[in-house]
């Protein structure tokens, strides 16, 4: 297991290196200068600014310098936003993103598990149909559409929640709801499939033949066995929550990194785009790694070796 | 002898995409205390469904449309789910076919073996675990104290089946249903498991219903044998009756397709031609008639009743009707008849 | 046990003594696999409804130039932001009236629209007919989806087959690539590609396809791996059939279910990405309409003119829901064990 984790961490750095290099050269391929949409500058001014950012040197030198900076945790300096270092920008904006992201993941996973389990237990009844319908809605309606609708009806029209404000927990409810729909749908579907599978397995039949009541069969045997594989979809879910957060933060004017990322894209703030890209990738790879380790820890077949044979 | 279980005229239907499958079409039998009854038949004949009906562990699209299952005179089909749960794993328990998939992969085997005790008996967890350890030793798991905390994947197939057996007997059931317990195992392990079951039966005095498609396994364990075909019993009697004085052409076919010590090296084993009938639309007469070389016109029109062969031996074939023509069974069966006479029986 | 029944003697005549041929007859009617799949699919009401809805949407998109009542890009600034109006039928919400300062006024009259003018779904801020824009927008979104799926198939399927079929070192190497590509968050790759390439249809398709093929390749590889070990493929190999022939004759037909089902999940994914990119402003450039740009425009005016967003939102959701459900239906039809039992 330790060897496996070490190997994975090595891969993590390799992947990050590839992403960073790719991002760097892609950005260098862009036509024009990043300042072309700034106020017009004279040639001299431009030269000074370029020197300030180190843009007057060869691409190779810039690349090495950027990568060395990365090793020291330096993601570069924003062209816009008061020349702040990208790391500082992320630092200021991480908390709100993390809060709504984590809330959405928790809400989505917990309710998704419940919905999927209920659907599986009441398979082929109206409960199952209703649960399937809800999860398909969650999967199909893009989070930004949901966000706009929630904002309009719950905040603007019925005034239950603030429209676009970021101060207390109240204001995080709508963005959380908008973001949690997709994980909820994904988990519910996955959980249902897993649990239907488990419920028809031989060991559930054996558990029934022991005289377990039906709720005990679910609680003691079915739930745990169907929950373990659910862990594997936490990674992809984190990706979709991150995707959603970019627009949802925008719609609700939340000062998070998603909003920052979209703003950087529309203002051609390349260092920030690069920095955030690398940061996002890092975040996701870490999530994937944690999920894999977690999976190994909770599944005895992997934890105790000799697994994956069946 | 004590009849502890009596199944009367059991009918089970399955709702499927294509319509209703009449899987069990009037099965009756009884089980005496402490004996072993083997139910033999090819796959799809309904033997597994018959025994699962006893514990009411059928798929959700199955319905028991008719019949009674009397356990000490009480009809199990009238019992509530809660009452059934008090019987499952306690009075009647079951061993499943595939030990590789019938244990919960995420629960230690100690807990799995102790579970029936915790459900049915008012015992502490500690006592239950202690008892589980004893039973694991009884079924032949080496060093059980240390292995209680292990998970199923850490055991071999044969050992897993021993654990499944341990789960089934941990509460000393009165009836043990073994649904093809050796089919998924290696031949050498098969014999070990059969020996174990026999040994356990002597120790705890449980009655066993043993399901198999392998007649060879039957001889080693059963007191009585029932032969099943297309959702009905076609013949039942003692082991000697079925092996050496078989009357139904289907039983002949089964025995004829099985090698014996007397089969000489270059003899061919015979197979039964054709396939079992489609139970969506079961035949009116004897279901075996289309594959039966000895079929008569009546076989296609009317289901044969059970004809008494001897005290405990019955067969459902029109060949036993007084008006039926005398037919000559296959040579191998005639040999068996000869042996039966040597054993002191009176073969037909 | 029972009374011996009285049976007429002639009934006890031995019948069939030699017609063994009939005994080998299989008593259930046999259907080919595809017939069976089709039958199961058409028995699934939800799938049939989704298939019908999607067919209608696809047909409308194909015949957009004939069906759309107006030029989707024609601006009539005087007629901007008109509410929906369906002819002269006085249906509330569809009669051209609008709430202005608490009073319902005829927005068409106020804008000085010629008599008889009506826009079924109203107009946007530049006075363009929303219905026509939605029809063309759907068309563009579907084109993106179809092209992205096509690239998916063209890269993913051969990649998966080769990787699974060759096995060994080739497979390990090809899987390493898949691993690296799939560990890069696809959204980020898509956004980076969109920044580097010029916004537009081609860039979106390339951006989506560059990461999208990985899932397809993975599934196809796994399936190929299994199929390779099947007796009939082994038999074909032993008989010396050329690899190409095995691939087309044995592999592709047996992979078809996996491929078709995965395609049904690629399409909504592509539609979502297009909408997402256009929504944040780096997708389809103005003045062309796609579902994403329509949603983006609609969102800006949503507070006062909610109809401008509702229509594209509903169409987008219908397409997403219908493809997802149809995908489910197809999976169940191809593999009845997955839902039944």
TrEMBL record, chain A:
It is found in: Cell membrane. Keywords: Cell membrane, Membrane, Transmembrane, Transmembrane helix, Transport. Residues 94-295 form the ABC transmembrane type-1 domain. Pfam families: BPD_transp_1, BPD_transp_1_N. The chain crosses the membrane at residues 9-27, 100-121, 133-153, 173-191, 226-248, 278-298. Gene3D superfamilies: MetI-like (1.10.3720.10). It is a multi-pass membrane protein. It comes from the Bacteria. InterPro entries: BPD_transp_1_N, MetI-like, MetI-like_sf. Belongs to the binding-protein-dependent transport system permease family. NCBIfam families: Opp3B. This is Oligopeptide ABC transporter permease. It comes from Companilactobacillus huachuanensis.
Automatic annotation (TrEMBL), chain B:
It is found in: Cell membrane. Keywords: ATP-binding, Cell membrane, Membrane, Nucleotide-binding, Transport. GO terms for molecular function: ATP binding. InterPro entries: AAA+_ATPase, ABC_Ni/Peptide_Import, ABC_transporter-like_ATP-bd, ABC_transporter-like_CS, Oligopep_ABC_C, P-loop_NTPase. Gene3D superfamilies: P-loop containing nucleotide triphosphate hydrolases (3.40.50.300). It holds the Pfam family oligo_HPY. It is a peripheral membrane protein. Residues 5-255 form the ABC transporter domain. Belongs to the ABC transporter superfamily. This is ABC transporter ATP-binding protein. It comes from Companilactobacillus huachuanensis.
From TrEMBL, chain C:
Its main location: membrane. PROSITE patterns: ABC_TM1. InterPro entries: BP-dependent_transpt_permease, MetI-like, MetI-like_sf, OppC_N. The chain crosses the membrane at residues 46-68, 140-165, 177-197, 203-220, 259-284, 304-326. It holds the Pfam family OppC_N. The keyword Glycoprotein does not apply. It is a multi-pass membrane protein. Residues 138-327 form the ABC transmembrane type-1 domain. It is found in: Cell membrane. Keywords: Cell membrane, Membrane, Peptide transport, Protein transport, Transmembrane, Transmembrane helix, Transport. Belongs to the binding-protein-dependent transport system permease family. OppBC subfamily. This is ABC transporter permease. It comes from Companilactobacillus huachuanensis.
């Amino acid at each position: 297991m330790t060897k496996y984790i070490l190997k994975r961490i090595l891969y993590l750095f390799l992947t990050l290196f590839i992403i960073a290099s790719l991002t760097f050269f892609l950005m260098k391929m862009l036509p024009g200068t990043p300042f072309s949409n700034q106020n017009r500058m004279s040639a001299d001014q431009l030269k000074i600014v370029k020197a300030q950012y180190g843009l007057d040197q060869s691409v190779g030198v810039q690349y090495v310098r950027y990568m060395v900076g990365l090793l020291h945790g330096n993601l570069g300096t924003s062209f816009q936003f008061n020349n702040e270092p990208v790391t500082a920008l992320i630092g200021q904006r991480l908390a709100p993103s993390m809060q709504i992201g984590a809330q959405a993941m928790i809400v989505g996973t917990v309710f998704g598990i419940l919905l999927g389990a209920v659907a599986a237990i009441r398979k082929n009844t109206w409960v199952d149909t209703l649960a399937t319908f809800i999860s398909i809605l969650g999967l199909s309606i893009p989070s930004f559409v949901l966000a706009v609708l929630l904002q309009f009806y719950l905040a603007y029209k019925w005034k239950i929640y603030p429209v676009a404000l970021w101060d207390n927990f109240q204001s995080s409810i709508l963005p959380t709801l908008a973001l949690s729909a997709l994980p909820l749908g994904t988990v519910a579907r996955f959980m249902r499939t897993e649990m239907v599978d488990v419920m028809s397995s031989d060991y559930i039949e054996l558990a029934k033949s022991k005289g377990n009541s039906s709720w005990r069969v679910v609680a003691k045997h079915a739930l745990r066995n169907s929950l373990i594989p659910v862990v594997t979809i936490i990674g992809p879910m984190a990706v979709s929550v991150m995707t959603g957060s970019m627009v949802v933060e925008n719609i609700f004017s939340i000062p998070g990194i998603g909003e920052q990322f979209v703003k950087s894209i529309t203002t051609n703030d390349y260092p920030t785009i690069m920095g955030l890209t690398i940061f996002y990738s890092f975040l996701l790879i870490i999530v994937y790694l944690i999920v894999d380790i977690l999976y190994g820890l909770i599944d005895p077949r992997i934890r105790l070796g000799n697994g994956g044979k069946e | 002898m004590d009849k502890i279980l009596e199944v009367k005229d059991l009918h089970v239907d399955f709702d499927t995409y294509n319509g209703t499958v009449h899987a069990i079409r009037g099965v009756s039998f009884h089980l005496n205390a402490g004996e072993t009854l083997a139910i033999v038949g090819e796959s799809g004949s309904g033997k597994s469904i018959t025994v699962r009906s006893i514990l009411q562990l059928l798929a959700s699209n199955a319905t028991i449309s008719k019949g009674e299952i009397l356990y000490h005179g009480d009809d199990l089909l009238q019992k509530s789910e809660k009452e059934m749960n008090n019987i499952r794993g306690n009075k009647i328990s079951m061993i499943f076919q595939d030990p590789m998939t019938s244990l919960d992969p995420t629960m230690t085997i100690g807990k799995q073996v102790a579970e029936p005790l915790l459900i049915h008996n008012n015992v502490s967890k500690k006592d239950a675990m202690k008892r589980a350890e004893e039973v694991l030793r009884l079924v032949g798991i080496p060093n059980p104290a240390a292995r209680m905390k292990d998970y199923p994947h850490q055991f071999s197939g044969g050992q897993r089946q021993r654990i499944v057996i341990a789960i089934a007997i941990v509460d000393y059931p009165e009836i043990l249903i073994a649904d093809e317990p050796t089919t998924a195992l290696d031949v050498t392990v098969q014999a070990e498991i059969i020996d174990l079951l026999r040994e356990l039966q002597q120790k705890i005095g449980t009655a066993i219903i043993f399901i198999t498609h392998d007649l060879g396994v039957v001889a080693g364990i059963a007191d009585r044998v029932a032969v099943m075909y297309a959702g009905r019993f076609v013949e039942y009697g003692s082991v000697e009756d079925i092996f050496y004085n078989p009357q139904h052409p289907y039983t002949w076919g089964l025995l004829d397709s099985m090698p014996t010590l007397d089969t000489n090296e270059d003899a061919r084993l015979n197979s039964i031609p054709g396939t079992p009938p489609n139970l969506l639309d079961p035949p009116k007469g004897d279901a075996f008639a289309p594959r039966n070389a000895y079929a008569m016109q009546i076989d296609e029109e009317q289901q044969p009743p059970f004809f008494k062969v001897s005290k405990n031996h019955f067969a459902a074939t029109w060949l036993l009707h007084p008006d039926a023509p005398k037919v000559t069974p296959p040579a191998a069966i005639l040999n068996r008849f000869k042996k039966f006479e040597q054993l002191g029986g009176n073969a037909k | 046990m029972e009374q011996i029944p009285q049976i007429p003697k002639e009934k006890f005549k031995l019948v069939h003594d030699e017609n063994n041929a009939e005994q080998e007859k299989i008593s259930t009617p046999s259907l080919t696999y595809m017939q069976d799949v089709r039958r199961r699919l058409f028995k699934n009401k939800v799938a049939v409804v989704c298939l019908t809805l999607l067919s209608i949407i696809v047909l409308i998109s194909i015949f957009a130039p004939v069906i759309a009542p107006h030029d989707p890009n024609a601006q009539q600034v005087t007629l901007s932001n008109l509410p929906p109006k369906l002819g002269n039928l006085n249906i509330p919400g569809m009669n051209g009236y609008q709430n202005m300062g608490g009073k319902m006024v005829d927005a068409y009259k106020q804008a000085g629209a010629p008599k008889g003018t009506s826009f079924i779904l109203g107009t946007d801020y530049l006075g363009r007919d929303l219905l026509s824009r939605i029809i063309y927008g759907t068309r563009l979104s579907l084109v993106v989806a179809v092209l992205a799926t096509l690239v998916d198939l063209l890269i993913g399927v051969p990649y998966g087959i080769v990787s699974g079929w060759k096995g060994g070192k080739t497979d390990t190497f090809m899987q390493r690539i898949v691993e690296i590509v799939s560990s890069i968050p696809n959204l980020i790759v898509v956004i980076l590609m969109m920044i580097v390439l010029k916004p537009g249809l081609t860039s979106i398709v390339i951006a989506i396809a560059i990461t999208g093929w990985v899932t397809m390749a993975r599934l196809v590889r796994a399936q190929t791996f299994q199929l390779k070990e099947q007796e009939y493929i082994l038999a074909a190999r032993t008989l010396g059939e050329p690899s190409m022939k095995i691939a087309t004759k044995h592999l592709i037909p047996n992979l078809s279910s996996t491929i078709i089902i995965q395609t049904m999940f690629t399409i909504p994914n592509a539609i979502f990405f297009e909408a997402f990119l256009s929504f944040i402003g780096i997708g389809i450039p103005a003045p062309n309409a796609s579902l994403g740009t329509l949603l983006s425009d609609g969102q800006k005016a949503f507070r006062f003119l909610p109809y401008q967003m509702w229509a594209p939102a509903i169409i987008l959701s219908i397409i997403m829901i219908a493809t997802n459900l149809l995908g489910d239906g197809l999976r169940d039809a191809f593999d009845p064990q997955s839902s039944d039992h």
